[in-house]
Amino acid sequence: MFSKKSISTFLQAQVAAFLGGITDYGLMILLTEVFKLHFTFSILISGTIGAIVNFSINRFWVFKNQSGYSSRINSQLFKFALVVLGSISLKSFGTLILQKSFQIDYRIGRLITDSFVSYGFNYPLIKNWVFRAKEKQNVIESN
């Protein structure tokens, strides 16, 4: 059902997401607790930094799309930025809903929201849209 390559890619993508997520989450706590920003603004800033970490790891290790073509990276960056905007929006909104409606601490609400957004939104779009072209190109070239 699943190939070793697809399982390996999924696990590598989870490592990339974890490292980007740790950066994101830690920075969110720092900005909220130390610099007293509202958590929705902290999520915006930390999500952007975490996304840069995640994109870099995905591009150069997970999906190995460092082809050197500037138009290629521009396309990937644009697509990735759209995914990140959606992801940050979903995380901010989800965390806010959990905090306002259910009085769940923003740190816990963020973890709950992240789990849904990461597996249900980020991974499918990053794998099948942002970094998809290289895989299809390799299949075409091998035929």
Automatic annotation (TrEMBL):
Belongs to the GtrA family. InterPro entries: GtrA_CellWall_Glycosyl, GtrA_DPMS_TM. The keyword Membrane applies. It comes from the Bacteria. It is a multi-pass membrane protein. It is found in: Membrane. It comes from Flavobacterium piscisymbiosum. Residues 18-131 form the GtrA/DPMS transmembrane domain. The chain crosses the membrane at residues 7-31, 37-57, 77-98. Keywords: Membrane, Transmembrane, Transmembrane helix. This is GtrA family protein. Its main location: membrane.
